[in-house]
Amino acid sequence: MRKLLSLCLLWLAIGAQAQQQQPEDFSAARKLQIAEFAIQQLYVDPVNEDKLVESAIIEMLRQLDPHSTYANAEEVKRLNEPLEGNFEGIGIQFNMNEDTLMVIQVIPDGPSEKAGLLPGDRIISVNDTAIAGVKMKNEAIVRRLRGPKGSQVNLGVVRRGIAETLHFTVTRDKIPVHSIDAVYMYPNHVGYVRINNFGATTVDEFMDALKRLKKQGMRDLVLDLQGNGGGYLNAAVGLANQFLERDEMIVYTEGRRSPRNEFRALGNGQMRTGKLIVLVDEFTASAAEIVTGSVQDWDRALVVGRRSFGKGLVQRPVDLPDGSMIRLTIARYYTPSGRCIQKPYDNPENYNADLINRYNRGEMTNADSIHFPDSLKCTTLKLGRTVYGGGGIMPDYFVPIDTTRSSDYHRQLLAKGAIIKATLQYVDGHRNELQKTYKKFADFDRSFTVPESLRQALIADGNEVGAKYDEAGYQKAKALIDLQLKALIARDIWGMSEYYQVVNHSEPTVQKALELMAAPDFNALLRKK
Hints:
alpha+beta; Pdz3 Domain; 2-enoyl-CoA Hydratase, Chain A, domain 1; 3 domains; 6-stranded antiparallel sheet
């Protein structure tokens, strides 16, 4: 009773003090503090104070912009891993095949390879806990496999051709996370690099890629940023620096409480000469748009593809004591010509549906459907070409989405995982045969054709998971389905770089880039736009 009386008196005192203060002295933060205190101390039922505070933070940030967000401690760790360049675990790539974890690749010189695991192995238990046949979610499996560097995990493994279960003890270690998916050469001294995000190791990875390609005779480069959602600003600046001359601006930021901050090239880049083409699409965002905008504004490169996403807001992480974090927008990104990368976000509903609206307007299939007001017009800094701000980077050469190769049936096969499942089963049963027949990827790429047995297995798997066979839909997409099957086999036998080599044989944006690279006067292409 005394405790309750004390709380009531304290509450009355706080309320009286607040009423006595002048309105200008009564901060919104104090108002929020009093409300939280009242709920915690006086509400009729017990409350979860942490959850209340998190909900309040989330709702406050929702009123600001689409990219100011809150993440709890677990989410922070998970979000940072792809950008930090490593995590701690056992070093495998895996997929779930019929409720069983199948090892697709083991990281070279990683913990699993050192312990003796092989591609094709099925992990059925982790520390005596069954993970096969129990419908365990991927996240739960990953939590069991990952752990601090130096810790050990016991794995039960089933291997094709061996009757008994094998047991391995794997010592966890730092596992690299690469931001470059593919590095390879095309004829006529053209190199290809695909970057999937901008993380802590991106610039170092890119420098290594350049060295490898130049040893193979590269003079010109196709830089593929399609689907690249961005990442660290410093990584974008470091990459753009490889293409630009000393003191050429890469990007600048500016906000209400953030004075203009310019980032300029150092002049020590390793790819300041040679033809450069950058590939973008509607999922190219943030740091990837910084790189694209900078080389376009300085007339250093041709940009090919479709208008990029339009994410040009600068977030500053605000770390909270419990390991959670607020990512608060503090400024906007501007390209060297003064274009604002960020698309409008005054209408949240339209912002979230922007890509669908672009498609409905015909923007994904027809460049003539894209219109910019003259007020957003800017000019490039060397050739004076017209470019536009107001959201995303518009390419110099537009490549529409190819809707002729796919079908509803094909999309069902993809969505329900039938194509991946059929590929896993095929590779599992033919790995040794494939490796024996095709000593090098080049042999596979040139000679392998998808067998009819694999096509029939795919159709059967599709029927099993609810993608009912449709003859017309299959025939329309047959060439694309075969291409994807072949690419996935290449990925599972060799790696992601080989996957993209197969896919890019008929990828329209890549093929357009190669066509432009072969033009007699590349500089004339820049001047025409």
